[in-house]
Amino acid sequence: MKNMILSALFSAALCAPAFAQDKPGMKSEESLFLDLQKTGLGSLSEFEEKKKFLETIKLEKQKIQGTMLNNIYENALDYYHQGNYEDAKDLALKILSIDPNFQDAQMLLEASNQLRGSARPGLSEKLMIEDRFKTALSYYNEGRIIEAHAKMQEVVKLSPNNIKAKYWLARMKDDLKEYYSQKGEEAYKNRDLKESLDNYYNALLIRPKDARTIEWITRIENELRQQKANDTLKGALELYAQGRLKDAYEGLKRALEIQPGDSKAGKLLAEVKSEIENGYLSAGKKFYQARRYTEAIGEWDKAKPYTANMSYLDKLISRAREQMKAEADEKRRRAEVAARRAKAEEEARAKEEADRAKAEAEAKRKGTTVEEVVKKPAGISEENRLAGQQHYMEGLKYFQNSNYEKARDEWTITRQLDPGNADAATGLKRIEQILSGGQ
Length: 439
Description:
Blueprint: H1 2-15, H2 29-37, H3 47-81, H4 85-98, H5 103-115, H6 121-141, H7 145-158, H8 163-189, H9 193-206, H10 211-241, H11 245-258, H12 263-289, H13 293-303, H14 310-366, H15 370-373, H16 382-400, H17 404-417, H18 422-435
Protein backbone atom coordinates (compact mmCIF):
# COMPACT_ATOMS: atom_id res chain seq x y z
CA MET A 1 0.00 0.00 0.00
CA LYS A 2 2.79 2.39 0.93
CA ASN A 3 4.52 1.69 -2.40
CA MET A 4 1.31 2.61 -4.25
CA ILE A 5 1.06 5.87 -2.32
CA LEU A 6 4.70 6.65 -2.99
CA SER A 7 4.12 6.01 -6.67
CA ALA A 8 1.10 8.31 -6.69
CA LEU A 9 2.99 11.05 -4.87
CA PHE A 10 5.95 10.66 -7.18
CA SER A 11 3.65 11.08 -10.19
CA ALA A 12 1.97 14.09 -8.61
CA ALA A 13 5.30 15.73 -7.95
CA LEU A 14 6.37 15.23 -11.54
CA CYS A 15 3.06 16.26 -13.09
CA ALA A 16 2.60 19.62 -11.29
CA PRO A 17 3.58 21.89 -14.20
CA ALA A 18 4.42 24.98 -12.23
CA PHE A 19 6.55 23.28 -9.63
CA ALA A 20 8.18 20.24 -11.20
CA GLN A 21 11.53 21.90 -11.79
CA ASP A 22 14.30 20.76 -9.48
CA LYS A 23 16.14 23.27 -7.36
CA PRO A 24 19.78 23.92 -8.25
CA GLY A 25 22.03 21.33 -6.64
CA MET A 26 19.13 18.96 -5.81
CA LYS A 27 18.86 15.58 -7.50
CA SER A 28 15.58 14.65 -9.14
CA GLU A 29 13.65 11.59 -8.03
CA GLU A 30 14.60 9.82 -11.27
CA SER A 31 18.31 10.35 -10.64
CA LEU A 32 17.95 9.15 -7.05
CA PHE A 33 16.33 5.93 -8.22
CA LEU A 34 19.01 5.47 -10.87
CA ASP A 35 21.73 5.99 -8.25
CA LEU A 36 20.11 3.27 -6.17
CA GLN A 37 20.06 0.91 -9.14
CA LYS A 38 23.78 1.52 -9.67
CA THR A 39 24.63 0.30 -6.17
CA GLY A 40 27.19 -2.51 -6.54
CA LEU A 41 25.69 -5.67 -5.08
CA GLY A 42 28.73 -7.93 -5.30
CA SER A 43 28.40 -11.38 -3.79
CA LEU A 44 25.57 -11.66 -1.28
CA SER A 45 26.40 -15.15 -0.11
CA GLU A 46 27.38 -14.08 3.40
CA PHE A 47 24.86 -13.05 6.04
CA GLU A 48 26.75 -9.87 7.02
CA GLU A 49 26.95 -8.77 3.36
CA LYS A 50 23.21 -9.27 2.93
CA LYS A 51 22.50 -7.39 6.16
CA LYS A 52 24.73 -4.49 5.10
CA PHE A 53 23.08 -4.33 1.68
CA LEU A 54 19.58 -4.29 3.19
CA GLU A 55 20.58 -1.48 5.56
CA THR A 56 21.95 0.48 2.60
CA ILE A 57 18.69 -0.03 0.70
CA LYS A 58 16.72 1.13 3.75
CA LEU A 59 18.80 4.31 4.10
CA GLU A 60 18.52 5.07 0.39
CA LYS A 61 14.74 4.61 0.50
CA GLN A 62 14.52 6.95 3.49
CA LYS A 63 16.57 9.60 1.68
CA ILE A 64 14.49 9.25 -1.48
CA GLN A 65 11.25 9.43 0.52
CA GLY A 66 12.42 12.49 2.45
CA THR A 67 13.49 14.30 -0.72
CA MET A 68 10.26 13.40 -2.47
CA LEU A 69 8.05 14.51 0.42
CA ASN A 70 9.90 17.85 0.69
CA ASN A 71 9.39 18.48 -3.03
CA ILE A 72 5.70 17.63 -2.77
CA TYR A 73 5.36 19.87 0.29
CA GLU A 74 6.86 22.78 -1.68
CA ASN A 75 4.32 22.12 -4.46
CA ALA A 76 1.52 22.06 -1.88
CA LEU A 77 2.78 25.32 -0.36
CA ASP A 78 2.83 26.92 -3.80
CA TYR A 79 -0.77 25.78 -4.36
CA TYR A 80 -1.66 27.39 -1.03
CA HIS A 81 -0.04 30.72 -1.92
CA GLN A 82 -1.96 30.68 -5.25
CA GLY A 83 -5.19 30.23 -3.34
CA ASN A 84 -5.65 26.64 -4.56
CA TYR A 85 -6.49 25.33 -1.09
CA GLU A 86 -8.13 22.13 -2.30
CA ASP A 87 -5.03 20.83 -4.06
CA ALA A 88 -2.83 22.04 -1.21
CA LYS A 89 -5.02 20.07 1.23
CA ASP A 90 -4.92 16.91 -0.93
CA LEU A 91 -1.13 16.94 -1.21
CA ALA A 92 -0.76 17.66 2.52
CA LEU A 93 -3.01 14.69 3.32
CA LYS A 94 -0.98 12.38 1.10
CA ILE A 95 2.25 13.53 2.74
CA LEU A 96 0.84 12.85 6.21
CA SER A 97 -0.39 9.40 5.15
CA ILE A 98 3.27 8.48 4.61
CA ASP A 99 4.88 10.56 7.36
CA PRO A 100 2.41 11.54 10.10
CA ASN A 101 5.17 13.53 11.85
CA PHE A 102 5.65 15.97 8.96
CA GLN A 103 4.72 19.09 10.98
CA ASP A 104 4.77 21.57 8.10
CA ALA A 105 2.33 19.40 6.16
CA GLN A 106 0.06 19.32 9.24
CA MET A 107 0.21 23.12 9.44
CA LEU A 108 -0.61 23.45 5.75
CA LEU A 109 -3.52 21.00 6.06
CA GLU A 110 -5.05 23.00 8.93
CA ALA A 111 -4.66 26.30 7.07
CA SER A 112 -6.09 24.89 3.81
CA ASN A 113 -9.07 23.36 5.60
CA GLN A 114 -9.74 26.69 7.31
CA LEU A 115 -9.62 28.70 4.06
CA ARG A 116 -11.05 26.39 1.38
CA GLY A 117 -14.62 27.21 0.43
CA SER A 118 -14.34 30.71 1.87
CA ALA A 119 -16.34 33.37 0.02
CA ARG A 120 -13.55 35.89 0.57
CA PRO A 121 -10.36 33.78 0.85
CA GLY A 122 -8.04 36.79 0.90
CA LEU A 123 -9.76 38.34 3.91
CA SER A 124 -10.08 34.94 5.59
CA GLU A 125 -6.38 34.29 5.17
CA LYS A 126 -5.53 37.71 6.60
CA LEU A 127 -7.71 37.06 9.64
CA MET A 128 -6.22 33.59 10.10
CA ILE A 129 -2.67 34.94 9.89
CA GLU A 130 -3.50 37.73 12.31
CA ASP A 131 -5.03 35.25 14.72
CA ARG A 132 -1.94 33.05 14.64
CA PHE A 133 0.25 36.12 15.03
CA LYS A 134 -1.66 37.19 18.14
CA THR A 135 -1.49 33.66 19.53
CA ALA A 136 2.29 33.66 19.05
CA LEU A 137 2.61 37.01 20.86
CA SER A 138 0.35 35.74 23.63
CA TYR A 139 2.58 32.72 24.11
CA TYR A 140 5.60 35.01 24.08
CA ASN A 141 4.18 37.33 26.75
CA GLU A 142 3.38 34.32 28.92
CA GLY A 143 6.98 33.19 28.68
CA ARG A 144 6.10 30.14 26.57
CA ILE A 145 8.97 30.90 24.24
CA ILE A 146 9.15 27.52 22.46
CA GLU A 147 5.46 27.57 21.55
CA ALA A 148 5.66 31.24 20.59
CA HIS A 149 8.61 30.60 18.28
CA ALA A 150 6.89 27.60 16.63
CA LYS A 151 3.66 29.54 16.08
CA MET A 152 5.50 32.58 14.67
CA GLN A 153 7.38 30.27 12.31
CA GLU A 154 4.03 29.09 10.99
CA VAL A 155 3.00 32.69 10.37
CA VAL A 156 6.18 33.40 8.38
CA LYS A 157 5.85 30.20 6.35
CA LEU A 158 2.21 30.91 5.47
CA SER A 159 2.85 34.61 4.92
CA PRO A 160 6.49 35.02 3.77
CA ASN A 161 6.09 38.77 3.11
CA ASN A 162 4.82 39.58 6.59
CA ILE A 163 7.51 41.98 7.81
CA LYS A 164 6.05 42.29 11.30
CA ALA A 165 6.07 38.50 11.75
CA LYS A 166 9.66 38.29 10.50
CA TYR A 167 10.74 40.92 13.02
CA TRP A 168 9.12 39.12 15.91
CA LEU A 169 10.46 35.77 14.72
CA ALA A 170 14.02 37.14 14.75
CA ARG A 171 13.46 38.55 18.22
CA MET A 172 12.01 35.26 19.42
CA LYS A 173 14.98 33.43 17.98
CA ASP A 174 17.32 35.42 20.19
CA ASP A 175 15.13 34.76 23.21
CA LEU A 176 14.79 31.07 22.33
CA LYS A 177 18.54 30.79 21.95
CA GLU A 178 18.93 32.38 25.37
CA TYR A 179 16.24 30.06 26.75
CA TYR A 180 18.09 26.97 25.57
CA SER A 181 21.37 28.41 26.84
CA GLN A 182 19.88 28.93 30.31
CA LYS A 183 18.43 25.41 30.30
CA GLY A 184 21.81 24.09 29.25
CA GLU A 185 23.57 26.00 32.04
CA GLU A 186 21.08 24.73 34.63
CA ALA A 187 21.53 21.15 33.48
CA TYR A 188 25.29 21.62 33.58
CA LYS A 189 25.13 22.83 37.20
CA ASN A 190 23.12 19.71 38.02
CA ARG A 191 25.83 17.63 36.27
CA ASP A 192 23.36 16.34 33.69
CA LEU A 193 25.87 16.76 30.90
CA LYS A 194 23.85 15.06 28.16
CA GLU A 195 20.78 17.21 28.83
CA SER A 196 22.98 20.29 28.95
CA LEU A 197 24.62 19.41 25.64
CA ASP A 198 21.22 18.83 23.98
CA ASN A 199 20.05 22.30 25.04
CA TYR A 200 23.20 24.01 23.85
CA TYR A 201 22.93 22.25 20.49
CA ASN A 202 19.35 23.51 20.22
CA ALA A 203 20.71 26.99 20.88
CA LEU A 204 23.34 26.46 18.19
CA LEU A 205 20.69 25.47 15.64
CA ILE A 206 19.06 28.86 16.19
CA ARG A 207 22.31 30.85 16.11
CA PRO A 208 24.92 28.62 14.41
CA LYS A 209 27.82 31.06 14.80
CA ASP A 210 27.35 32.07 18.42
CA ALA A 211 30.84 31.88 19.97
CA ARG A 212 29.62 31.45 23.56
CA THR A 213 27.40 28.51 22.61
CA ILE A 214 30.25 26.86 20.72
CA GLU A 215 32.52 27.36 23.73
CA TRP A 216 30.01 25.66 26.02
CA ILE A 217 29.52 22.76 23.63
CA THR A 218 33.27 22.25 23.39
CA ARG A 219 33.64 22.27 27.18
CA ILE A 220 30.76 19.84 27.76
CA GLU A 221 31.86 17.46 25.04
CA ASN A 222 35.34 17.39 26.59
CA GLU A 223 33.85 16.62 29.99
CA LEU A 224 31.61 13.91 28.50
CA ARG A 225 34.62 12.34 26.81
CA GLN A 226 36.51 12.46 30.09
CA GLN A 227 33.54 10.97 31.92
CA LYS A 228 33.24 8.19 29.36
CA ALA A 229 36.99 7.59 29.49
CA ASN A 230 36.82 7.40 33.31
CA ASP A 231 33.96 4.89 33.15
CA THR A 232 35.90 2.81 30.64
CA LEU A 233 39.02 3.08 32.80
CA LYS A 234 37.05 1.97 35.85
CA GLY A 235 35.78 -1.07 33.98
CA ALA A 236 39.32 -1.88 32.84
CA LEU A 237 40.56 -1.66 36.43
CA GLU A 238 37.88 -4.10 37.54
CA LEU A 239 38.94 -6.53 34.83
CA TYR A 240 42.56 -6.06 35.89
CA ALA A 241 41.67 -6.87 39.50
CA GLN A 242 40.01 -10.07 38.28
CA GLY A 243 43.20 -11.08 36.48
CA ARG A 244 41.62 -10.66 33.04
CA LEU A 245 44.65 -8.90 31.62
CA LYS A 246 43.76 -9.03 27.94
CA ASP A 247 40.25 -7.67 28.53
CA ALA A 248 41.74 -4.95 30.74
CA TYR A 249 44.24 -4.14 27.98
CA GLU A 250 41.43 -3.71 25.41
CA GLY A 251 39.46 -1.55 27.84
CA LEU A 252 42.44 0.71 28.45
CA LYS A 253 42.98 1.09 24.72
CA ARG A 254 39.35 2.20 24.35
CA ALA A 255 39.82 4.69 27.18
CA LEU A 256 42.82 6.19 25.40
CA GLU A 257 40.92 6.34 22.12
CA ILE A 258 38.26 8.43 23.88
CA GLN A 259 40.77 10.59 25.76
CA PRO A 260 44.23 10.21 24.18
CA GLY A 261 46.00 12.40 26.73
CA ASP A 262 44.90 10.46 29.82
CA SER A 263 48.22 9.85 31.60
CA LYS A 264 46.70 7.51 34.18
CA ALA A 265 45.25 5.23 31.51
CA GLY A 266 48.51 5.39 29.55
CA LYS A 267 50.59 4.40 32.56
CA LEU A 268 48.29 1.53 33.47
CA LEU A 269 48.23 0.34 29.87
CA ALA A 270 52.03 0.12 29.89
CA GLU A 271 51.93 -1.91 33.12
CA VAL A 272 49.28 -4.29 31.79
CA LYS A 273 51.21 -4.77 28.55
CA SER A 274 54.32 -5.58 30.59
CA GLU A 275 52.43 -8.14 32.68
CA ILE A 276 50.98 -9.83 29.61
CA GLU A 277 54.41 -9.89 27.96
CA ASN A 278 56.08 -11.29 31.08
CA GLY A 279 53.44 -14.00 31.29
CA TYR A 280 54.20 -15.15 27.76
CA LEU A 281 57.96 -14.85 28.38
CA SER A 282 57.76 -16.99 31.51
CA ALA A 283 55.62 -19.65 29.83
CA GLY A 284 57.99 -19.73 26.86
CA LYS A 285 61.03 -20.18 29.11
CA LYS A 286 59.39 -23.10 30.90
CA PHE A 287 58.71 -24.78 27.58
CA TYR A 288 62.29 -24.07 26.53
CA GLN A 289 63.69 -25.67 29.67
CA ALA A 290 61.52 -28.72 29.00
CA ARG A 291 62.96 -28.81 25.44
CA ARG A 292 59.52 -28.09 23.99
CA TYR A 293 60.90 -25.51 21.61
CA THR A 294 57.90 -25.19 19.27
CA GLU A 295 55.60 -24.32 22.18
CA ALA A 296 58.21 -21.89 23.53
CA ILE A 297 58.40 -20.08 20.19
CA GLY A 298 54.58 -19.95 20.10
CA GLU A 299 54.45 -18.23 23.51
CA TRP A 300 57.10 -15.70 22.53
CA ASP A 301 55.26 -14.95 19.31
CA LYS A 302 52.14 -14.17 21.37
CA ALA A 303 54.17 -11.66 23.40
CA LYS A 304 55.06 -9.57 20.33
CA PRO A 305 51.95 -7.30 20.31
CA TYR A 306 52.70 -6.31 23.90
CA THR A 307 56.48 -5.85 23.87
CA ALA A 308 58.59 -2.74 23.68
CA ASN A 309 61.73 -4.80 23.06
CA MET A 310 61.14 -6.79 19.89
CA SER A 311 64.84 -7.57 19.42
CA TYR A 312 64.92 -9.48 22.72
CA LEU A 313 62.01 -11.67 21.64
CA ASP A 314 63.65 -12.25 18.27
CA LYS A 315 66.83 -13.38 20.04
CA LEU A 316 64.90 -15.83 22.23
CA ILE A 317 63.12 -17.28 19.22
CA SER A 318 66.37 -17.48 17.25
CA ARG A 319 68.12 -19.26 20.12
CA ALA A 320 65.27 -21.78 20.41
CA ARG A 321 65.46 -22.52 16.69
CA GLU A 322 69.24 -22.96 16.88
CA GLN A 323 68.85 -25.31 19.82
CA MET A 324 66.23 -27.30 17.94
CA LYS A 325 68.64 -27.66 15.04
CA ALA A 326 71.57 -28.58 17.31
CA GLU A 327 69.59 -31.27 19.08
CA ALA A 328 68.31 -32.63 15.80
CA ASP A 329 71.89 -32.78 14.50
CA GLU A 330 73.06 -34.50 17.72
CA LYS A 331 70.27 -37.05 17.46
CA ARG A 332 71.20 -37.76 13.88
CA ARG A 333 74.89 -38.08 14.83
CA ARG A 334 74.14 -40.54 17.61
CA ALA A 335 72.00 -42.57 15.28
CA GLU A 336 74.87 -42.72 12.79
CA VAL A 337 77.35 -43.78 15.54
CA ALA A 338 74.97 -46.46 16.77
CA ALA A 339 74.52 -47.74 13.25
CA ARG A 340 78.26 -47.91 12.63
CA ARG A 341 78.85 -49.56 16.01
CA ALA A 342 76.18 -52.15 15.28
CA LYS A 343 77.73 -52.78 11.89
CA ALA A 344 81.19 -53.29 13.45
CA GLU A 345 79.78 -55.66 16.04
CA GLU A 346 77.93 -57.61 13.37
CA GLU A 347 81.08 -57.91 11.30
CA ALA A 348 82.99 -59.15 14.39
CA ARG A 349 80.33 -61.76 15.14
CA ALA A 350 80.34 -62.93 11.53
CA LYS A 351 84.11 -63.29 11.58
CA GLU A 352 83.99 -65.14 14.87
CA GLU A 353 81.42 -67.58 13.50
CA ALA A 354 83.46 -68.08 10.38
CA ASP A 355 86.59 -68.76 12.44
CA ARG A 356 84.73 -71.25 14.60
CA ALA A 357 83.34 -73.06 11.60
CA LYS A 358 86.82 -73.24 10.15
CA ALA A 359 88.18 -74.57 13.49
CA GLU A 360 85.47 -77.25 13.66
CA ALA A 361 86.33 -78.44 10.16
CA GLU A 362 90.03 -78.51 11.02
CA ALA A 363 89.38 -80.45 14.25
CA LYS A 364 87.29 -82.99 12.39
CA ARG A 365 90.00 -83.45 9.79
CA LYS A 366 92.68 -83.93 12.45
CA GLY A 367 90.52 -85.97 14.80
CA THR A 368 91.01 -83.50 17.68
CA THR A 369 88.80 -81.15 19.60
CA VAL A 370 87.94 -77.61 18.56
CA GLU A 371 89.61 -76.20 21.68
CA GLU A 372 92.91 -77.75 20.66
CA VAL A 373 92.65 -76.27 17.22
CA VAL A 374 91.53 -72.82 18.47
CA LYS A 375 94.25 -71.60 20.71
CA LYS A 376 93.29 -68.01 21.44
CA PRO A 377 96.30 -65.82 21.39
CA ALA A 378 96.69 -63.46 24.26
CA GLY A 379 95.10 -60.09 23.50
CA ILE A 380 93.01 -59.12 20.47
CA SER A 381 92.91 -60.59 16.98
CA GLU A 382 94.97 -59.12 14.23
CA GLU A 383 91.83 -58.26 12.30
CA ASN A 384 90.42 -56.18 15.18
CA ARG A 385 93.73 -54.46 15.65
CA LEU A 386 93.89 -53.51 11.95
CA ALA A 387 90.24 -52.40 11.91
CA GLY A 388 90.84 -50.31 15.03
CA GLN A 389 93.88 -48.69 13.46
CA GLN A 390 91.85 -47.81 10.39
CA HIS A 391 89.18 -46.08 12.53
CA TYR A 392 91.93 -44.29 14.44
CA MET A 393 93.32 -42.83 11.19
CA GLU A 394 89.81 -41.69 10.15
CA GLY A 395 89.40 -40.03 13.53
CA LEU A 396 92.77 -38.30 13.17
CA LYS A 397 91.63 -36.72 9.88
CA TYR A 398 88.45 -35.38 11.55
CA PHE A 399 90.49 -34.07 14.50
CA GLN A 400 92.88 -32.18 12.25
CA ASN A 401 89.84 -30.56 10.56
CA SER A 402 88.45 -29.57 14.00
CA ASN A 403 85.45 -31.89 13.59
CA TYR A 404 85.78 -33.19 17.14
CA GLU A 405 82.42 -34.96 17.28
CA LYS A 406 83.30 -37.19 14.31
CA ALA A 407 86.82 -37.77 15.63
CA ARG A 408 85.43 -38.85 18.98
CA ASP A 409 83.08 -41.32 17.26
CA GLU A 410 85.93 -42.91 15.28
CA TRP A 411 88.28 -43.17 18.26
CA THR A 412 85.52 -44.63 20.42
CA ILE A 413 85.11 -47.44 17.88
CA THR A 414 88.92 -47.88 17.88
CA ARG A 415 88.86 -48.39 21.65
CA GLN A 416 86.09 -50.95 21.29
CA LEU A 417 88.03 -52.93 18.69
CA ASP A 418 91.44 -52.45 20.32
CA PRO A 419 91.18 -51.47 24.00
CA GLY A 420 94.96 -51.23 24.21
CA ASN A 421 95.25 -48.50 21.55
CA ALA A 422 96.91 -45.76 23.64
CA ASP A 423 96.79 -43.17 20.82
CA ALA A 424 93.00 -43.41 20.65
CA ALA A 425 92.76 -43.07 24.43
CA THR A 426 94.99 -39.99 24.38
CA GLY A 427 92.96 -38.46 21.53
CA LEU A 428 89.68 -38.96 23.37
CA LYS A 429 91.06 -37.22 26.47
CA ARG A 430 92.22 -34.32 24.31
CA ILE A 431 88.78 -33.95 22.74
CA GLU A 432 87.10 -33.90 26.13
CA GLN A 433 89.43 -31.10 27.22
CA ILE A 434 88.67 -29.07 24.08
CA LEU A 435 84.89 -29.50 24.28
CA SER A 436 84.85 -28.60 27.97
CA GLY A 437 86.72 -25.36 27.27
CA GLY A 438 90.22 -26.50 28.27
CA GLN A 439 93.39 -26.09 26.25
